[in-house]
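ugh ok fine here u go
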Amino acid sequence: MTTAIRAPLPADPASSWGIVAHLPERSTTGAIAMGTALRSDEMLAALRLAAPGTPLRAGIERIMSARMGALIVVGSGPEVLAVCSGGFLLDAEFTPPRLSELAKMDGAIIVSDDCARIVRANVHLVPDPNIPTSETGTRHRTAERVARQIRVPVITISEDRSEVAVHVDVEKRMLEPTARVLARADQALQILERYKTRLDVVSTSLSALEVEDLVTVRDVATVLQRAEMVRRIAEEIEGYVIELGTDGRLVLLQLEELMGGVEDDRRLVAKDYYASGDDWDLGDVLARLSRLDDETLLDLEAVAGGLHLPARHDLDTAVQPRGFRLLHKIPRLPELVSDHVVERFSNLQKIMRASAADLTEVEGVGDARARTIKEGLARLAESSILERYT
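structure:
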């Protein structure tokens, strides 16, 4: 099931249409059901071509304003020509008026991959009739079969229902008014802000526990869980930004502001605590975390499993950070130097106890940088503990 957000429609729907993919139903825990990406890369690429502000979108709006139907295939390779019959060759520059004029004919319109040229018009498409389809109308059945057979974007405009759909392989996305898409994006931004606030709280708590050497697997898994939830909501909003085209600029600015530092924090927490091995590296940890479904992500033991810790480690087992994350918070300290410091001292507690003279023995650390590290860690320790107990 999907949750539809009803927003006031503009007076002229044909002048303000945007593409939207439905947000999943909210779970009973209050967490947004995020799971795997709702759109493939191919679908996102197709939506980008048809986003507001593009010539293809302008052409679609003209067709809808004239209350006409159309079948548009985006792609002109040999695989497209193999399902084409009849029609006539154009190879003309793409313009919205030309597209709407050609839509007056019954056949399909073939445009180039980048929608820069109209290749053919009034084409009869002949896909494999054995390909299954859930559509009923002739135009829509043809569109779904073509999309499944040759994996190119196929856009259908329904004359009777004034609906527009994008087909890519087995995926289908309906076009809806931009106002409704913006409402969904705004709701997702509000959810992201709340989750980001919770992530900041558990991240600050983890920093204080690291300074006091009191970290457990549960604390680490909680931060990773929250960071992954935030990442998935942001990924959903990125899809809206693509779909909104020129109308999504403000959404993008808000997203970038909220997501500042989240990806680095997620990666560095994993880097601090995962058990490395010949068959398990940091990339494997992040990939496994990304593959967890919604229900599994709520299970801290499943999240902790991605760290590849020894079997004897449970959620209440104490663990020590290597120190990558706190070192990353020190201004103007390159990550390569942080790596050398951790390689030399092995964990955060030893780094914090190291003298300036000890630090200068590390590659890339001179007297000035050694003082910066000592003073930076001291400030971080003080502020983390104060924030935790205030």
